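Researcher: I've been going back and forth with a colleague about how Gfo/Idh/MocA family oxidoreductase might be arranged in three dimensions. Neither of us has a model we trust, so I'd like an independent prediction. The organism is Paenibacillus hemerocallicola, in case that matters for your notes. Sequence below.
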Amino acid sequence: MSVKLGMIGAGGIAKSHMNALKKVERAKIVSIFDLNTEGAEQAAASVGAKVAESADALLNPAEIDAVFICVPQFARGDLEEIAAKRGIHVFVEKPLGLELELVARKEQAVREAGILNSVGYVLRYYDTVQKAKQYLQGKTIHLIQGFRIGGSHPAPWWSQQHMSNGNLGDAVTHQIDMIRYLAGEYKEVTAQFGRNTIKTLKPEATIPDAGAVTFSMESGAVGTITESCLSSFHSGSEIKFIGQDFFLQLTGNGKTLTIIDNTQNVTITSKQDPVYEQDNAFVEAVAAGSGDSILCGYADGMRTLAFTIAAYQAAEERGTVKV
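Model: Here is an independent structure prediction for Gfo/Idh/MocA family oxidoreductase. You can compare it with whatever you and your colleague have in mind.
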């Protein structure tokens, strides 16, 4: 059976999903909505879909089985709740939102409706990340070091803290989530954020240009995450998991895995397209009526958001905040 999909949003991330879904045998995108009508028309033409008159009109259970919500976190309103009430399965891009209380309300609606749900923490779908997860089972980690350094997003909304939650909330959320996925739940967090450069280069911006976050895990491990969104000559991402008897490193957003211990010193680079793997898993879940293939659901994604919220709170209060 084919799975009929609606797409809310026709920007860059939506196009990434559309390109992946073209390769998913069961997937059929039937309708697209975006406030940018021209963008929606171009996207619809590329996949043979129709342009919906509104997001509400697109969320029609007689026409679609599931929806991909690919609009920015500040612009989602109550889309997830509407879909849930109408029995439409939902894929929602990360991060889930800006306020934990609002996202918790949506999570409750999704859970009580019993719909299948997936969140776009795409890096979980790399085979390298799965190998790392398997390797770390039962290992005692005492130190975690993570960073993500790069340039800023071109969209004007991205530089506004109340619309994006900054680089930590919008981009580094992938590293935050990876640590959770591989090493367990966070316990406490402290943080500092700076505006040393951005206040001059982009005076209208309200986001930090750099952040340094320290944390503890429920397991007893401790760690750091550092980040910058204004680095012109260096970029990249890395997470190191360090134990007395092993060293595990993920670079390139999880694409390359290195494991060193007493029996091995190996480096593996994935050849997978994690967007395809993620979208295929969601479509197959909808077709089968089971979420077993989904690696991050709404409740799980909400716990990743909680870390970001706690980090900003800790920085504002100049203290330690429980996650």
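Researcher: What would you highlight for our discussion?
Model: I'd start with this: The chain has twelve helices and 15 strands. After that, consider the following. The first strand starts at residue 3 and ends at 8.
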